[in-house]
Design a protein that fits this description.
mainly alpha; two-stranded antiparallel ribbon; 3 domains; about 425 residues; 15 helices; three-stranded mixed β-sheet
Amino acid sequence: RVGQAIEWFCMKKVNEDPRWRDITVVFSDAHVPGEGEHKIMHYIRGLRAQPGYNPNTSHCIHGMDADLICLGLSTHEPNFGVLRNKLSEEFQPVHDEFCYFNLGRFREQLKKDFSNIKDMDFERVIDDFVFLCFFVGNDFLPHVPLISIKTKGVELMLDHYVRDFESHGYLTKRGEVKFDGLRRFLQSFLREKIDLLKREYDNKRRAAERAKGHVKERVDGAQKQIEELLATVTPNTSQDALQTISNRLLSLYSTIKKEELRFVAGRFPLTFSYKDPSQRHKYYATKFGWDLEDPVKMEANIRLCCAEFLRGMQWVMRYYTKGCPSWEWYFPFHYTPLLQDLAEFHDIVNVDMKIGEPLHPVEQLLAVLPRQSVGALPEELHEAVEDPSSVLAKFYPEDFEICGVKAASACCLAKLCAAALSPAGNPGI
């Protein structure tokens, strides 16, 4: 009903409001499957395919997702901008202040940065740039250990991409990953850059440890001031004084919240040393729970994880450049394989994907909403989420593992099975 009301409103404005008459409104609600920004990219790709399309057409997309930059680049449109709200110190959007990112100028700078590549096909380089950015994580795959913005992983990968281009060549072609070239790239990248990555990681970790101490000092100081303020309140305290104390308390609580959101050592939770290759299995035992006492099975699991991750990289590349290649695919692990294992993976990656069927909007809500948001579901589905005997109960646990700090944590939940969703969601459809 909400979608129908919005559609009616748009039609009314186009027909009756002179300011809307030269505007084309494309409305797509939850009954058209897909993410909003990807629907927009699909629309732009459709425009580009039409006869007589003006290549100088300008596009601007508004949103807070960082992937809008890569999505904009993947259209290969020269006049593209991303508009987003500025963020407050609490990482909340400021509704009347904006940032504009000019992708056209960014493309020009990338062209200069990659100019040392002989006989460069710049549009293919753009696709490779987008692909390499996937290694720091995206909405569908976790980031690869050591490859992060904080460790300058992207800069190091791009620098190596240019310097070693003759060895590995282009990594993608028309949205398809060239896995042989990718393997050569990763192997040479590890040989030449792994020490730099480790150094950056260690530097950031030490800085985070120091910052953690400073954060604790400021939080303890704010909490002490709160206690002192509360001690001054008596039955005889005037209303004006109470208001002043209340304002000060709110300010102190805000300070504590800001400090808790700051960068702290908890963002570097790895419990093993990358400098010791013998601890490779310890990573998988710690993160995946695989048995250290069974190295044969451990290696088989690592190969499976590598295959699934690389298959996932292909899925994401197709998703960004062509549209959703499969509604059924998902990465079956909470963490990624190590870079050295991806570099040494020689098996053929199965990239055949069945398109399948998208979930119904109600099933989608079941898949993404946490237990606390059950009120947003149709009433007929409340029992499916809350009843411990429900087939879906294990997907909505009260207790679960969290990796990382509050502002950037990963919740380790059971992978939700679409086959279980359909019968469970039927009462609400």
